[in-house]
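Entry 12.
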Amino acid sequence: MSALSPARSLEQLVRLVRELLRLPAETEWLEDKVSNGDAAEIGSYISTLANGAALAGRHRGYLLWGVEDGTRVPVGTEFDPLRQKVGNENLENWLLRHLKPQIHFTFHRVSVSEKPLVVLEIDRALQQPVTFKGEAFIRVGSYKKKLGAHPDVERRLWKSFVLGAFEDGIAADLLSPSDVLQLLDYPSYFRVMKAPLPESRSGILDALNREGMARLDDSDTWAVTNLGAILFAHDLDEFSALRRKSVRVIQYRGSSRVETVKEQEGVHGYAGGFAGLVGYINELIPSSEVIGQALRRTAGLYPELAVRELVANALLHQDFLVAGSGPTVEVFDDRMEITNPGRPLVDPLRFIDSPPMSRNERMGRIMRRGPCICTPACATSVPRRLRTPPYVTDSVSRRETVPKHRG
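Predicted 3D structure (tokens):
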């Protein structure tokens, strides 16, 4: 189950509902009910609205109870999802069990115009249509229909999955301009881009909007995208869906994982915190004194360029749709292992001579524009400098094992 829907305050919920009620009619991602609490009906609407949100390019769909169908006037509801059971099973667990994939949805209770309402917030479908009891649904006109009965709509839905990207997802929404600037380390963005910092708040927000890191939505509130949060968050822990994507660095004693010497988890976004991350890793790597023809110098067991590029590759090429894990750097006495979620897009045996491929193109473009982060020319030199380190791949992650560098 994903965790993309934000944790909302009561004030944010009221604002959300008021904005939804301003729409003149229901849409493919918005449905009104008064008190219909039939579990199977709710399940089919979760499929309908998740698929409809994907088709419409929205990040979430909504089902409102306590709103009169047609007039869209709040009338209140007696429906209580927390008390609803299907047999001896609570409603949320029952619904989740019959959904595939198990997308995230949340019930909220809120009072608007002194009328009790219930909001079901549903994450959009990602990668494939959401089905309920094996059947996918979609809204056609004003009616809920089986997706398979409308092949043209089904083709458009599948096309939306191909065109969609993690970077476009919403990490936090219903924000004020001050909230955006508090969540994002915007000075680091302008520093990495070697661009002058605008003098006004509106100039900063315009730049973040153009880059796709923040977005002004239809309700005149702001949202921070996954792209902005993962690259320039002040604190990734502020974004519930991205907490597990921070980088963990672990140093072990010896060549096994029996004894941990140090463990550190990153806080900042990847681009804003990249220099500090690489510097910290290089401090953990054992070094030795090398005597040249005239001078002595201290050299790490691995070239700094290789460490920088391997870490950058792990960040850029991970699969963010693999839940529950993030990039990890493990430093042993005899090697370093760098792991990221997602199988490689290219056969590891063909990394050097295959055309470049990336899951996260916009992330890569921004990080490559920062000369202190990574460059395509440097990336191709890493395997040669390390005499092609071995790669171990399993079903959900890629691990790069870097042996000691021998000069």
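Annotation: The domain at 10-164 is CATH 3.30.950 (Methyltransferase, Cobalt-precorrin-4 Transmethylase; Domain 2). The chain has three domains: 10-164, 170-241, 246-403.
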